[in-house]
Design goal:
Length: about 110
């Protein structure tokens, strides 16, 4: 466990040692990967627990699932849907808002 913590600290230190632009681009890339690969399955699970099956067919047949949601999500991003883009950029925007709030508190 200590080795894992030490490795995480080294990785975080290398991240902080990057030039500001490289660090920001790396953060953007990581949050976009999270929003593309991890967030849709989490949204599907939350929707399944609270709303039921993901239905793609208006007739009510349960033809959806996590992969169907992922395909619809990517299609919405490619179609420039504002809601899909908000989900895509949400993790980065929340990170920026958190950092801005933290900077305001330090003033």
């Amino acid at each position: 466990m200590r080795a894992v913590i030490a490795r995480l600290r080294r990785t975080l230190q290398r991240f902080h040692d990057q030039p500001p632009l490289s660090r920001e681009l790396l953060l953007l890339a990581c949050t976009l990967l999270f929003a593309l690969l991890i967030l849709p399955p989490l949204i599907w699970v939350a929707g399944r627990l609270s709303l039921g099956e993901y239905l793609r067919d208006p007739s009510g047949a349960p033809t959806g699932g996590p992969l169907a949601l992922m395909i619809d999500y990517m299609g919405g991003i490619l179609a420039l849907s504002p809601g899909h883009w908000l989900v895509l950029l949400g993790p980065y925007l929340l990170t920026v808002a958190f950092r801005a709030g933290r900077a305001l508190v330090k003033m």
